[in-house]
Amino acid sequence: MTTPLPTGGRRPRLRRGPIAVTTAVLTSLAALAACSGPPKDSGVAGGEVKLSASTPPARGQIDSFTWAVYAEPPTLDYTLAFDYPQNTILSNVCESLMRWTPGLTLEPGLARKASNPDPTTWVYDLRAGVRFHDGKVMNADDVVYSLDRQRDPDNAAAWAQNFQNVDSVRKTGPLQVTVKLKKPDSQFPQYMATAAGVVASKSGVQAAGKDYGTTGGLACTGPYELGTWSKGQSIELDRFDGYWGTRAKSEKVVFKVLTDPSARTNAMLSGDVDGGYLIPTESYGRLRDSGIGTLFFGEGLSTVNVNITDMKGPLGDLRVRKALSLALDRSGFVKAGLGGAGTVTSSLTTRAAWAGASEPTLKVAFDTLPPTTQDLAKARALIKEAGATGKTLTVATSSIGQDVSLLATAVQAAGTQIGLKINLKTIAPNAFTALFTDPAAREGIDMFPLTYYDSITDPLDLLTNFRTGAYLNFAGYSDKEYDSLVEQATAVYPHDQRLKIEAELQKKAAEQLLWIPVAEWPTAVFLNKRITGAPTTIAYMYYPWAADVGAAEAGATQ
Fold first, then answer.
1. What CATH number does the domain located at 13-31+299-521 have?
2. Would you tell me which CATH number, out of the four given (3.90.76.10, 3.40.50.300, 3.40.50.720, 3.40.50.2000), belongs to the domain 94-207?
3. Conformation bin of residue 231: beta by default, left when phi > 0, alpha when psi is -120 to 50
4. How many whole angstroms separate alpha carbon 114 and alpha carbon 179?
5. Who has the most CB within 10 Å: 61, 272, 359, 509?
6. At CA 36, angle to CA 30 and CA 37, rounded to 5?
7. Separation CA 350–CA 506 (nearest Å)
8. What stretch of H or E contains 36?
9. Domain 49-75+223-298+528-551, what fold?
10. pTM higher than the cut 0.70
11. Structure confidence by residue, pLDDT tens digits, 381-398
12. How far is the C-alpha of 430 from the C-alpha of 332, rounded, in Å?
């Protein structure tokens, strides 16, 4: 889900709109970009970004490949896998009952079949003979134990809200588990393809105790098992030759922790790492034109937003939130912050998440959204009307990448132009994840940049975040009517019927500006000429993508 920095028919391309180069915000962004030193042509040229369904399939086996990640996971416990670094690695080690494919559809995973005999019952028939990394064979007891860990309040599981409607998880056969729901839940079966549906060995997790996820093995079933973890430097995965599925093409994967965006880019250019996801936007041009590999773009199901974390102060007034939205130079940010690889939006959800929706449903979801064009005069009037002139707000920023730092700068510039005082609070990349898990880390912060990725192909994945008490509802928004609509949509299994309700939710969330939407952002992946096979879509978060990576040339084993 979420960064958090976090899908139907695919869009063949994204188009970049004209850029207003005369605005004060873009001047501020350009100045900051110049100070950070990316090359003059750092973005994507040509006026459009073509989305690739995949990279070319591997043509041979390799001994190993290296991959860049922007932060070290604090843990690889599947119950806390709620951010990019954790899931990018964990998706290759731990598997779920269902599987998200590179095409962002559902297929069987560790469960060979999922059936729904009545609206409140889901039956999972498991694959036979699946071995955990310690050699034990998976059975129904392991599944019950793994799902119950997500439901245990003592675990503070990041996925707990996805189990709120679960009444019981029971073994109903040696290789069968039955989940009884308190009421119909259209989202639950979809989340069984994410980290929420991971199955780990009961005995393995119990043996690790409180150290599970930080030392030793992960007691899972994936094509790779956890190897050497050099804290602060790298995490190695070793091929699991007892894997039940297709054998991985590389014997080893080394994830190198490179918190500095320039260091990640230079490592790719030098060959120190073979590739990576979440490419620094300021490096698109350098990598594209380097001649040592290919920069691909794929469906990301991601929107870039400004997360409102505190509505007890000035942001509690809707007029202040509207003013900031009107003052933002979204086009300037897309060019400078996303390297031109994005589209301006006032929608919290991506268009792709609404695949299959009828035209009337799409009209409700998108045609009444707030404007994306900058209107400083109207914004200043709203600030004055709210009595907020001169008020101070704090925005978190980080050197994770220019998508984060330049959006924070854009918010600061927007606020300054309309009479607010915006302070920036810099947070280290490794600590940025704490904003999503630790209320103490958000103390004194009013807003922070948030790139939200959908974990399932359903708009409700994002829209449920504004329900009372939801995991990412950091500002504590509460509206009984909104909660009721979430409940209604959750209970409806037919796709278009559910989307009609979700369109009303989108409209209501947009009117309240609970997050300020900025842009849609595709997934970027860079591969040097030595390797190929990685998916281009956001599926890498829950699909064992590294197993598909191999030699770009037949017969290569380097």
1. 3.10.105.10
2. 3.90.76.10
3. beta
4. 11
5. 509
6. 90
7. 11
8. helix 24-36
9. D-Maltodextrin-Binding Protein; domain 2 (3.40.190)
10. yes
11. 999 999 999 999 999 999
12. 28
For residue 43, what pLDDT is reported?
54
pLDDT of residue 161: 85
Q: 92, 191, 51, 199: which is closest to 138 by C-alpha?
A: 199
Q: What is the mean pLDDT of each run of 10 residues along the chain (558 residues)?
A: 33 25 31 33 57 94 97 95 93 98 94 97 98 97 98 87 94 98 96 97 96 93 98 97 97 96 96 96 93 95 95 96 98 93 94 90 90 96 98 94 92 98 93 87 96 92 94 93 96 94 95 95 96 96 98 73
The Cα–Cα gap between 220 and 224 comes to: 9
Q: Which amino acid is at 549?
A: V
Cα(557)–Cα(372) distance, integer angstroms: 51
Strand segments (E) across 84-204: 98-100, 106-108, 111-118, 121-126, 166-173, 176-181
Distances (CA, A) of 108 to 124, 138, 511: 10, 16, 39
What pLDDT is recorded for position 17? 27
Identify which of 344, 349, 372, 375 has the alpha carbon closest to the alpha carbon of residue 362: 349
* CA atoms of 280 and 524, how far apart (whole Å): 9
Question: Do 420 and 391 meet the contact criterion of CB atoms below 8 Å apart?
Answer: yes
- Whether residue 332 contacts residue 18, with contact meaning beta carbons closer than 8 Å, is answered with no
Torsion angle in degrees (nearest 10) through CA of 241, 150, 352, 100 = 20
